[in-house]
From TrEMBL:
Residues 1-18 form the signal peptide. The keyword ATP-binding does not apply. Keywords: Glycosidase, Hydrolase, Signal. Residues 493-628 form the Glycoside hydrolase family 31 TIM barrel domain. It comes from Streptomyces bangladeshensis. This is Galactose mutarotase-like protein. The keyword Signal applies.
Length: 873
């Protein structure tokens, strides 16, 4: 939040300054701003509010500083205010020092904070009214003091249109001091800028939008009396004259996409846009919004947040999309407040508007947004395997250990037949590492890659990567001077891996901004385990996909607390996220209060077997998930999806029941168990036929399933009719040791109809795929009254390590036992296939077949006579 916003706050005019005492001050219409000075602090606390004594034992604020701010404003003052609350900042002379800012209401609830490494620190007290207790913690300070500033933002509205000119895709609009410009861009996009200073600025520069789309020059304008119209091939922008307002319509100039109901309003340090809300209009996006994926009727915050729990927004983005057929990205590093009521009000805390609008359905909008700020990166295949993170050197929680002890943990994964893709071996403040090259080789011998936290700075990456590091983790400290610093750090970490090896950059970070999807996996921070923790993460990660975030996750079992049942339940559903990590070395057991490591075998049986079951299933499904990653890199749409994204015409997908389930790709519907129970109620299944993955029972949607039997080893999991799912062979525990000469296909044919799937493959680790070193294989499946036909095309393309031939194992769900199974028209021997009447699954194994030629598999039913009955019946 710091950089752009703080400069605005400290420069804010103060026409009526409140008198500040040592204890506090009042902000009201007669006193619109206040500033105060702290004492000099000789040293910092090295911690947060928990390091501060209570006020009674620190009356002079010699350890931490306290200031009471009373806000007295009329009712409705914040209803249409661009800044949405009282901006508050603290600044100090030496930028190397660090003060942190926390704000509490009269009930002791934290309502705002800014605790990065910025100078100044800045935040907003949302919809402030009453008395607030401002606590400033001198985190890392050396004989330094700070100055605090707060103000009530005043507002001004745009007036009548005073000028209109332009052509060939770019138009300039004036309304008194306000200057605006509308640029129509290729691909159905519009950039709208406005600034009451009279000149248009671009503080974000190329940090987020690296390359701007070209102008759509095929435009024309016309005067419709009340407004000027600007027509492009995709839309018409209306520029109303009295007062200046904007509206975007479809090419017929009658169907509204969005329409301002009031003119732009700006304040001391913010600007808002107010839009008419459609009767059934829905809103999504905002990046990571903990606990929600749809936002109609809600206020959504986009800012620097270290609230890792429900309601937090630490990986938020200034972007939303609407079911009305558009999305909008505010090109800024300033925080924002978006209220999706009636009307919809959206504002950033800077005195300018810079908005890119994208037209299309939800997937098209996500695609256009990520084309602008950066497509999701293509991960290495080991990045989709489980990761393990701990401090193996100088860990006070676990006694003296050494970096090479990580190899013993890697051996534990192998001993328990559990996949492991990478290990972060220095994940602790001041942990450090030793024996780096030996650790690299030891992990690689165990089919895992080395990861390091960048605690010593990103400039150390080059030597570490040359020594074998392949995973980099950033931390909250990398927020630095605002979100630009965080985004730059993510880009630099990815580049540090790729500039010093042939590997793909694989970066994890907990605080980010728009564009981070191009360089990293976002994870939702340091949580404490509870059933609620499991519950609210479900819509969080599905909702993040609506902003083009393809990789969003949380620690399996959380970081600080451990419980065997909760851990198993959490791991089950997270096996259907692309990226997962276990954070070890910091947890205590909920029951005993003793330290508890969190590797998935630590709790013994039955938990070890349950956790193995889901980790091995995740490994088997890597061809499916890897193909989804390739699709995300091409389209911007990630694997983990709210049901609405695939079924936008089904209102049930927005209901309370569907909130706590998600789709993994288009084919798997996952309904996690998020309470201590053996049944799951309220499982919503959209239109179509859904098959229970475990039992083979089918359900016809739309329907709600209650009383689903889900003992601890069972994740409620359903597969869409028509699904074609590639899998590695049973028992696979590593992408390196898998049987490359076998590929399995799990098929769910419709009784009548055709399905298609295209498998993507490459070498999994290098960047040669960017040069075309990859292969695709198309599979189609057709069901009819006489059986099922599967057509497998030739594998097109080449990459290092590609085999020439492989066997295939097909599991075909539903239906009766086939009378014959034919390969390219020739019957397979009965020993090559079987039918399980209990699960209604036919299993077929083919001989080794060359990849450069396709083949057809036919499951034929009994021959029919002319009456339509089976012959001989």
């Amino acid at each position: 939040m710091a950089g752009v916003l703080a400069g605005t706050l400290l420069a804010a005019p103060a026409p009526a300054r409140a008198a500040a005492t040592a204890a506090g001050a009042v902000l009201d219409p007669a006193h619109s701003s206040v500033s105060w000075q702290s004492p000099v602090y000789a040293k910092g606390t090295g911690g947060g509010p928990e390091k501060c004594p209570d006020a009674a034992t620190d009356p002079g604020g010699t350890v931490c500083h306290r200031f009471d701010l009373t806000v007295s404003v009329p009712d409705g003052y914040w209803d249409d205010n661009p800044e949405g609350g009282v901006p508050l900042s603290i600044g100090w002379e030496r930028p190397a020092d660090d003060f942190d800012l926390y704000v509490y209401d009269d009930r002791g609830k934290q309502v705002a904070s800014s605790a990065g490494t910025a100078d100044p620190e800045a935040t907003v007290i949302p919809r402030a009214s009453g008395t607030y207790h401002v606590l400033v913690v001198p985190y890392a300070v050396h004989d330094n003091s700070f100055t605090g500033t707060a103000y009530l933002p005043a507002t001004t509205d745009a007036g009548d249109l005073t000028s209109f000119s332009g052509g060939a895709g770019s138009y300039t609009i004036g309304a008194g001091r306000l200057t605006a410009r509308a640029d129509f861009l290729k691909g159905g996009q519009l950039r709208l800028q406005a600034d009451p200073s009279g000149s248009l600025s671009d503080p974000a520069g190329t940090a987020i939008v690296r390359r701007r789309p070209a102008l759509q020059r095929h435009t024309s304008s016309f005067d419709a009396g009340d407004y000027y119209g600007i027509r492009s091939p995709e839309a018409v922008l209306r520029v109303y004259k009295k007062p200046l307002r904007f509206g975007l319509y479809r090419p017929d100039n009658r169907t509204r996409i969005w329409q301002e109901d009031k003119p732009l309003r700006w304040s001391t340090g913010g600007m808002r846009q107010s839009l008419t809300r459609g009767a059934d209009e829905q809103f999504f996006g905002g990046g990571e919004q903990n606990g929600s994926f749809s936002h109609r009727g809600r206020t959504m915050y986009v800012a620097n947040s270290f609230d890792w729990n429900e309601g937090g927004y630490n990986n938020s983005q200034p972007f939303y999309l609407s079911s009305a057929g558009y999305g909008v990205f505010r090109n800024t590093f300033a925080p924002g407040v978006y209220t999706f009521g009636a009307p919809v009000t959206t504002g950033q805390q800077e005195r300018r508007l810079d908005a890119y609008y994208f037209l299309g359905d939800a997937k098209q909008v996500i695609g256009k947004y990520t084309a602008l700020v950066g497509r999701p990166f293509m991960p290495p295949v080991y990045g989709l395997e489980p990761g393990d993170s701990d401090c193996y050197l100088h860990n006070a929680n676990r006694g003296e250990r050494h970096t090479l002890d990580a190899l013993k943990i890697a051996d534990g994964y192998a001993e328990h037949r559990m996949p492991l893709g990478w290990m972060l071996v220095n994940d602790g403040y001041g942990c450090g590492y030793e024996n780096l090259e030996q650790t690299v080789k030891g992990l690689q011998d165990r089919h895992a890659q080395l990861g390091l936290w960048t605690e010593d700075g990103i400039d150390k990456l080059a030597d570490q990567v040359r020594a074998g590091q392949r995973v980099a983790k950033l931390d909250v400290a990398w927020v630095g001077n605002g979100y630009k610093f965080a985004l730059d750090a993510c880009d630099a970490a990815k580049r540090g891996i790729e500039d010093n090896s042939d590997a793909r950059g694989f970066v994890w970070l907990p605080v980010s901004w728009a564009g981070a999807q191009r360089c990293g996996v976002l994870w939702s921070g340091d949580q404490k385990l509870s059933w609620d923790y499991i519950r609210w993460q479900i819509p969080t990660y599905a909702g993040a996909t609506m902003s083009g975030i393809a990789y969003n996750t949380g620690d399996v079992g959380s970081i600080y607390r451990h419980d065997a049942r909760m851990y198993a339940r959490d791991l089950q559903w997270k096996a259907f996220l692309p990226a997962i990590m276990t954070m070890d070395g910091w947890a205590t057991d909920l029951t005993t209060g003793k330290p508890a490591d969190q590797q998935p075998w630590r709790d013994g049986e039955p938990y070890t077997s349950i956790n193995r079951k889901y980790l091995q299933l995740k490994e088997r499904l890597l061809p499916y998930m890897y193909t989804l990653s390739a699709q995300a890199a091409r389209t911007g749409v990630g694997a983990v999806r709210p049901l609405w994204l695939e079924y936008p015409d089904d209102p049930g997908t927005l209901g309370a029941q569907a909130k706590y389930e998600f789709l993994s790709g288009p084919d798997f519907l996952v309904a996690p168990v998020y309470e201590d129970a053996d049944t799951r109620d309220g499982i919503y299944l959209p239109k179509g036929t859904w098959t229970d993955y475990w039992t083979g029972r089918t359900y016809q949607g739309p329907t709600t399933v209650n009383g689903y039997h889900a003992p601890l080893d069972t994740l409620p999991l359903f597969v869409r009719e028509g699904a074609i799912v590639p899998m590695w062979p049973e028992g696979t525990t590593s992408w390196q040791t898998r049987d490359r000469h076998e590929l399995d296909w799990d098929l769910y044919p419709a009784a009548r109809g055709t399905g298609h799937y295209t498998l993507y493959e490459d070498d999994g680790v290098t960047r040669d795929f960017t040069k075309g070193a990859a292969a695709t294989q198309r599979v189609s499946m057709r069901g009819d009254a006489r059986g099922t036909t599967v057509t497998v095309g030739a594998s097109r393309g080449d990459y290092a390590g590609k085999v020439d031939a492989r066997t295939y194992r097909f599991t075909v769900h539903g239906g009766t036992a086939p009378a014959r199974v034919l390969l390219d028209g020739r019957p397979l021997p009965r020993s090559a296939w079987s039918y399980d009447a209990g699960t209604r699954v036919t299993t077929v194994r083919t001989p080794s077949l060359p990849l450069d030629r396709g083949f057809t598999l036919r499951l034929a039913g009994p021959e029919r006579n002319r009456t339509g009955t089976a012959a001989g019946s």
